[in-house]
Amino acid sequence: MKIGIPKEIKTNENRVAIVPSGVAALVAAGHQVTVEQAAGNGSGFDDAAYLAAGARIEPEADAVWAEAELIVKVKEPIKIEWPRIRTGQTLFTYFHFAANEELTRAHLASGATCIAYETVALPNQELPLLTPMSEVAGRLAVQQGAKYLEKLYGGRGLLLGGVAGVAPANVLILGGGVVGLNAAKIAAGMGAHVTILDISLERLRYLSEILPANVQTLYSNRHTLLEQLADADLVIGGVLIPGAVAPKLVRRADLELMQTGAVLVDVAVDQGGCFETTHPTTHDNPIYLVDGVVHYAVANMPGAVPRTSTQALTNATFPYLLQLANKGWRSAASDNQALYKGLNIVEGQLTHAAVASAFGLPVHRAPI
């Protein structure tokens, strides 16, 4: 199969969809891999490494897209890339369609088949291709939140862990999934007082058992959320409904309860965000203020640490990529139910119920 690896062109997106060792394995399996020139530079993998692995380096993005039967990326194609997508092509990347109707309709019109990393799901409901980036984003959320609590950036002027004789900051985490667990580990390790809200008692029991004593777990409801917001210095939103728009847990009016200079970090921004006042930002301009509260809503947070993120992501995606390359999307999805659940759009038809529901569009069963 002809596989294309374009350079990521979303603002400050330095990840790449495959590492040189992955290229070598694909080539050994009989596939042709074309990598756009400098695609791996941001993650520390130069063109020479891809050439040594057996890839062909192509200087023009248009040529990469035109030749490839299977396009593998990290982030959803942006507008400039939409005309390059063609009927019969397969795209394998993060899409987050439910947060963007224009993106969804453009890919429906393309006639391509779109397999979304974020909805590939195992029988136990684990999301194996979302998990590594959720781990990175959860840890990074605390790192960024701690920075923007500094007075220089409009924050309250707090050190997250405090010092002897001075209380630490209060960190509130919405959602006890992969993002929440990783955020709690880092925040607790820095000495903050951490509270996790979730609606699964089973998950809360698990978190209580494995996390240190400076982390408390609370059952999430509207009353508890408002109570906790009033004392929170840093709020991390990590709520996920696979493939669907994130619920808006914190409303605009709720900000009035918060202290001036508190920080909101919305890790769910790719799925529309779990704060009503969220809108996507970039690494170039990551924050904005609403009612005196600092908002950080970078839509590709792991892109800030591309070396780590690329290695973590490709460790997870490569086995699925190899199946797609060896069998084609139809046979691969038929043989692997996790990949089947990743099918969001198939040749002009919407096949994921949560995306269809977000925009009132008809949903079809994927034809495999």
- Indicate the mean pLDDT: 96
Spatial strand sequence of the major β-sheet: 3-2-1-4-5-6-14-15
Whole-number tally of structural domains: 2
Annotation field: number of helices: 11
The shape is globular
The CATH homologous superfamily of the largest domain corresponds to: NAD(P)-binding Rossmann-like Domain
The CATH architecture name of the largest domain reads: 3-Layer(aba) Sandwich
Radius of gyration: 21 Å
Number of strands: 15
Biggest β-sheet, characterized?
8 strands, mixed
- Which structural class should the secondary elements be placed in? alpha/beta
State the share of residues found in helices, binned by percent. Answer: 25-40%
Question: In CATH, what is the class of the largest domain?
Answer: Alpha Beta
Distance between the termini: 19 Å
Poorly predicted tracts of residues: none
Q: Give the strand content.
A: 15-25%
CATH topology of the largest domain: Rossmann fold
